[in-house]
Amino acid sequence: MRFFQKLLTKLLVLFSSIVIHSQEVDFHPPIDAPFNLSGTFGEFRSRFHTGIDFKGGEGINIFSIEDGYISRIEVSPSGYGKVVYITHPNGYSSVYAHLSRFSPDIEKYIKSEQYRSKSFTVKKFPKKDQIQVKRGELLGYSGNTGRSFGAHLHFEIRDTNSQDALNPLMFNYTYEDLERPIIRGLYTINENNTLIRDLPKRIRISKTNDSTYVADNIIFNGDIGFGIDIYDIQYKNLFNRNGVYKVELLIDSIQKFSYSMDRIKFSENHYKKLMYDYLSLVKNNRRVLKVYIPPRSNLSFLKTNDFNGIIKSNEIINSKVNIKVTDWNNNSSYLEFKIIRADTLKSNKPLNGIEILTNQKYVINKGESVVEINKNTFYEDVLLNITSKDDTIDLGDEITPFRSSIKLKIPIDENIDSLSLSQTFIGKIVNNKINYISSKINDSYITANTSSLGRYIISRDSILPEIRPINFKNKSNVKSNKTLRLRIKDDKSGIKNYKAYINGKWALFEYEPKQNLIFHDLSDSVIEDGENDLLIEFEDGVGNKQTYNTKIYY
Predict the structure, then answer these.
(1) Residue 364 to residues 61, 106, 264, 406: CA-CA distances in angstroms?
(2) Which H helix or E strand runs over 188?
(3) What range does the domain containing 424 cover?
(4) Residue 268 lies in a domain
(5) How many Cβ atoms sit within 10 Å of the Cβ of residue 474?
(6) 381 and 194 Cβ atoms separated by less than 8 Å
C-alpha cells in the first residue's frame, strides 16, 4: 500500500510539473537534429544565458518555429555573429544565433546590404512585409560565428511586447534527461561586513545515495549566506555542464528562498554578477552560486518569504537546512545539513584602504595619477587599496564586480614625440601580459575607462599588424578556389578595422577573430577574368596601418 502511495505521489509531482511547464503554443522544432543541450536557459555566464544551446556541429538546418516576418538581421565578428530575429503574430519572437550562413534568400538580402554599406558588420531591421517566413522554413545553418566557442545553435523565445526572454522549454519542447543535478560543493559566505571580502569557506559534503548529499554541521555567528557549486548533465556520456532549472532553500522544512528559470528581463542582466561569489570566480575560476538574495540586487525571478535567505544569528539558533536543486525534467538532488549558532561573534578585520560608498562620487589623486569613480559604480560599498608609481596605477586585487566603469588618468612624458604618443595606450597587466584598453590623450594625461580592478600601466604599440595569404600566392591562379583566405593578427592593440578592394572595387571579406581569419567568397562576382589587383588595408587599435597588395589571376 505504501509503495502505491509513493508511486502516486511521484506521478502527481511529475504531472504538476508538466502542467506548469506547458504552454498552449505548439512551435515547430528549430533544428532537425536530436535535442542535445550544451547550454540551458538562465545559466550564469558573463551574463544570464537567455536561451538554450543545441549541440550538433556546423551545418545543421535551422528552421523558423512559426509563421512571421524577419524583424532583425545582424552580422558581427562578436556577440551573436550571424543572427536572425523573427516576430510571430501570436505575441512571441524567436532568435537564431551563431549561424555559419543564412538561407539563400536571406544571404542574398544581407550581402546586398553589406556591399551597399561597404561593411562586413551590418544590422538591419526589415519592414513587416519585406521578408515573410513560414513555419518550418529554412533560415540558415548552425555555426560558430560571433562570441561562440564551438559550433551550435543559440535559440531564444521572447515576449514580443516586453522583450523578456522566456525559457524555450516551456513551449512543449521535450528531450530525454534522466540524470540528477550534481552538487560539487557547499560554501558559507560572510555577509557581516561587505567592505572586507574573504573567499567563501568550503564545507565538506558526501553523497549518501543517488539523490542526497549531506554536509558537516555548520557553526556560525553573525550573518552568513550559503553558496553551492552545482551543474546538470543530460547524459553521462555528454560532457557539457549545464545550469539547473530551480534552486530552493528550506530552513526547518519551510521554504526561505527559491528561483526558477522561466523568464529573464534583459534590463536585469547586470545583476547576474551578484548571483555568484565574485572572489571565487576571479581567484579560483569557480562559480559559487549564492542561495540568497544578494544585497542591492533586483532580480525579479528570485523569491523569498520573510527574509532574503541570509542566515542571521539573532534569528536562528539550531536548524535543519535543505537545499534542493532541480533540472527541467524534474530530476532533483538534495543537500542536507544542520546549522548551530555560536555564542560569540568573531571580530572583523581592521579596515585598510579607501572606503568607497556606492552613493557617492570620488576623485582620488595618487601622486600625479587620478582615479574618478562615479556614484553606483560598485554594487556595494568597497574598500580599495590604490597606489601609483611613475606610469603605473594599481587599484588593488579584483574583489568585487563593477556596475559601471571608472576613469583612469595617468600623466605622460611631455617630451614624447607625436608618433610615439599616437601609439601609446593604457593596458592592464594580466599574467605578465599587457591587455590593451581603448585610450585617449587629453592634455598631459592619457585616459581610459575600465570595469575591473587590478594593475594598469602606460604601454606602446609600434608593431604593424601582420597579414599573410593562406590558400593563394602572388600572381597565382585562383579560379579553382571557392574563397580567398588570409591570416591577420595584431598581438598588442588588436585589429580595429580593415578594408579590401579588388580592382579598386570594395570587396566583402568576412572576419573571424577567433581564428585571425578574413575570407572572400569568389562567387560574389567582384573578381574578373584575367589579372586582378587585390588590396587590403588594416588598422590596429592605436592607428598603426598595414597594407597588403598582390596580383591574382582568375
Answers:
(1) 55, 53, 37, 11
(2) strand 182-190
(3) 354-460
(4) yes
(5) 10
(6) yes
**Is 199 in the same domain as 319?**
yes
Tens of pLDDT, residue by residue, the chain (554 residues): 444 444 443 444 344 344 444 467 889 999 988 888 999 999 887 788 999 999 888 999 999 999 999 999 999 999 999 999 999 999 999 999 999 999 999 999 999 999 999 999 999 999 999 999 999 999 999 999 999 988 999 999 999 999 999 999 999 888 889 899 999 999 999 877 767 778 899 999 999 999 999 999 999 888 889 999 999 998 877 778 999 999 999 999 999 999 999 999 998 888 888 888 988 988 898 999 999 988 777 788 877 666 688 888 877 888 999 999 999 999 999 999 999 988 765 656 666 788 999 999 999 999 899 999 999 999 888 999 999 998 999 999 888 889 899 999 999 988 888 888 899 999 999 988 999 999 999 888 999 999 999 999 999 999 999 999 999 999 999 999 999 999 999 989 999 999 999 999 999 999 999 999 999 999 998 999 999 999 999 999 999 999 999 999 99
Exposure string of 436-468, with b = 16+ CB inside 10 Å and e = fewer, is: bbebeeeeeebbbebeebbbbbbbbbeeebebe
Shared-domain flag, residues 136 and 34: yes
Q: Are residues 219 and 331 in the same domain?
A: yes
What cell does 484 get?
A: 580567398
- CATH number (domain holding residue 486): 2.60.40.1220
CA distance 244 to 155: 18
Residues 6+ apart with CB under 8 A from 98: 80, 81, 82, 83, 142, 143, 144, 145, 146, 148, 151, 152, 153, 154
What is the C-alpha to C-alpha distance for residues 305 and 313, in angstroms, rounded to an integer? 18
Of 273, 307, 341, which one is at a domain's C-terminal end?
341
Query: Does residue 325 share a domain with residue 228?
Result: yes
CA distance 412 to 402: 27
Q: Which among 410, 442, 460 is the end of a domain?
A: 460
Into how many domains does the chain fold? 4
Domain assignment present for residue 455? The answer is yes
376 falls within a domain:
yes
The domain that holds 150 is classified in CATH as: 2.70.70.10
Q: Do residue 110 and residue 202 come from a single domain?
A: no
Within-domain flag for 11: no
| Long-range contacts at 2-5 (CB < 8 A, ≥ 24 apart) | none
Could you tell me the three cell numbers for 287?
562559480
Q: Are residues 134 and 253 in the same domain?
A: no
The dihedral sign for the CA sequence 49, 177, 292, 262:
positive
CB distance 186 to 215 below 8 Å: yes
How far apart CA 551 and CA 535 sit, in angstroms, is: 9
193 and 329, same domain (yes or no): yes
- Please identify which residue in the block is written with the cell numbers 531591421: 125
Q: Classify residue 10 as exposed, middle or buried by CB count within 10 Å of its CB (0-12, 13-18, 19+).
A: exposed
Same-domain pairing of 477 and 455: no
